[in-house]
């Protein structure tokens, strides 16, 4: 039913995901050796069950995968209580709603600067790339600014991140594994160098703040701090880039759907960005492991077995959303789970929402007749769903 090697499935997985939902309960998927939960209620239950954990299995041999392994085992994403509780409490002292909201002027400044560059390319070439010229550099610049990365090194971050997250796909290739190992080591060494510099010259950046954060006499270890910075980069921009890209392509392909956003971009930005995330979710699969025998909608997941929430399938469930397969940028009731749920709710979600709430109306205001200039290029991935290019122009 779900063939992750099928190119047609990767382009449009939703017909097959609808078939999976129609089974009415979680089901065993032999090729991946795990259960899948496709219905909204079941996927939500998987995300919230305390007996289903994020259990990271280290890659072997350890000598080859050392950096990749600790970037995951020492991160919030792949930890469970009590370690998760401790890490989250320490990280929240530096990365919290107050510090995120304080980024608003910087996000607005970066947004307008990128739009100026897009306008220049449009005037010169007749087109620009919504993804490469706008949606992608914005969150990378924001998180780099937060972490205190030098402007000259920003270009390193997205390739490192993309190489690492390819390991989250169902069947990473040997080439992807080699790239991920190299990226993990380069990224870890780079952050470690910045951390050592901040010890001598502390600043107001996130690395300095994380290094100084303390709770009950405890601080982040060196490896925990590095793992946290890498996670914040990945979580702080992957959802924003892919959520924005998937949503804008879907909206531009539906003139009647995008028209209310063209009419009043700022009034509609809140509901529009949530519909972007629901309609074509940037994260399609989130895996959990049973720490004890656990039942989800009558299906027993035995201790040690894995079950994954199919977020994109859940977000198209007619039992949870009216007219679920239609895009509606005015949708008010929208309990999507694109950012997950429970203790592993995406730590970057507030930042992604803030960035999209600023960048989406700004893009439409600057280019009210924006349209696709050619067919966008879809990335050949499922778990992290997005585009490589989105060529755009404006209608005269």
Descriptive overview:
The protein is of the alpha+beta class and 396 residues long. It has one domain (7-394): Cytochrome P450 (Cytochrome p450). Helix content is 53%, strand content 10%. The protein has helices at 7-11, 14-22, 40-48, 62-73, 83-92, 97-101, 104-125, 130-135, 137-147, 157-165, 174-200, 206-212, 222-252, 255-263, 265-279, 311-314, 349-366, and strands at residues 27-29, 34-37, 52-53, 128-129, 285-290, 294-296, 299-301, 306-310, 370-372, 377-378, 387-389, 391-394. The strands form 4 sheets. It has a 5-stranded mixed beta sheet with strand order 1-2-8-5-3, with helices on both faces. Strands 4-12-9 form a 3-stranded antiparallel beta sheet. It has a two-stranded antiparallel ribbon with strand order 6-7. A hairpin with an 8-residue loop joins β10 and β11 (387-389). The chain is globular and about 60 Å long. The model has no long low-confidence stretch (mean pLDDT 93).
